User: Fold this.
Amino acid sequence: MLSLNSIVQRAPDVIAAESGDDLVMVSVTNGLYYGISDVARSIWEAIEHPKKISDLIDDLTASYRIDRETCARETISFLESLRAEELLQVSDGPVA
Amino acid sequence: MRDLDLPRAPGPASGAGFDYVLCGWHTRSDLPLTAVPTQRRAGESVDVRIEIAQGASPMAACTRPYVFEHSAARSLIKIGEIAQFEVSEGRRIRVWLAPGAARKDAEIFLLGPAWASLCHQRGLLPLHASAIRTRHGVVAFSGHSGAGKSTTAAVMVAAGYELVADDVLPISLNGDASPGAWPYLRRMKLCSKSIAQLALSPVAEVGTRLDREKKFVHPQRAAADEWVRLERIYLLESGPGATRTIDRLVGAEAVRALVDQTYHFAFIPMSGRYRDHLEMCAHIALSVPIYRLPRFAELGIESELATIIRAHLDGVLVDKRAGHLDRPRDAL
Assistant:
């Protein structure tokens, strides 16, 4: 279960290409293709390097008009879906 | 992302074999290709060689009936009791016919998965599509087997357009990265019902054991041997949930359609070409409009197929009967 203290980063074996406003990704591990846009794309781009979820939410609430509680709930839900698809690496240690 | 500048296949242009121009490449084949006109280009060296191989194939010891193994430069394909193929460096296909196998049945796989592998090796995107040429460029009709690609192309050829390819359309990028296509197989593989409806004359059976319900038909009009810009792609919808409108796909959905319709996609993961392939699909999706085309037979307006597509191509969609088809968002 992810928490605000979890540190997340994109899985290394994911290849992405831009298509207009969307980002299309393929996981080399499972061969599946994914498409993301809008805030999901912003989150994906923000986790190129290890990032603490609470810091990610700080950035998002500064950029989008959304209350912190809703932002945290929806961001963690999205990150959980990334993890379920093996598109996310998670650790609980300090950010390098 | 561009077509590789590959060395020419060894051997002079003259000598034994049948000469064809496929995808713009001078192709010399030991096997005659059914319903494909031979074309001799004097003085030109051979780009692709199709050889009937002697001796044991690299898959001779393999007991599995089907083999599809790909690296970036070499593909091995074994089709049960039909044939085995080795495709190398984007310029040579060696064929081992199985004992008792019909040449025509082997040809189905030679010009399908084996040729698609050769295209992949050269950095082209073989799209599962039939295509025609209009005054604006190549228009592709893409879709899964049974979606109606050949029939749709045949209907449009009967309406006055030129056939560019049937079933496989290899897409390449020109010098300024515009997607386009050379003609590939300019003969249509149609079922008896379509042949009768369009009052066409079949010229040959497709297969002996395979595809027995289909026949080859020469198009009334065939595109000339030249690379032409890809104007648009229609994705033929079928089955439950098929759309009732001609909608444009954009963004990730458009890219996904190209990924789904990549012919012999198995090459991509096995050769580790995910990045090149994804970038190619994303580039084409940004450069070329892609539309979902409803299955008109299911809407009861199949007889108006050519009229509807032509109206959509012209940017003025007039649909008196259905009344639910969208006007295109980007008229030509």
In short: The mean pLDDT of chain A is 92. Residues 16 and 78 of chain A are 18 Å apart (CA to CA). Chain A touches chain B at residues 15-24, 26, 28, 31, 33-37 (CB under 8 Å). Residues 68-84 of chain A form the longest helix (17 residues).
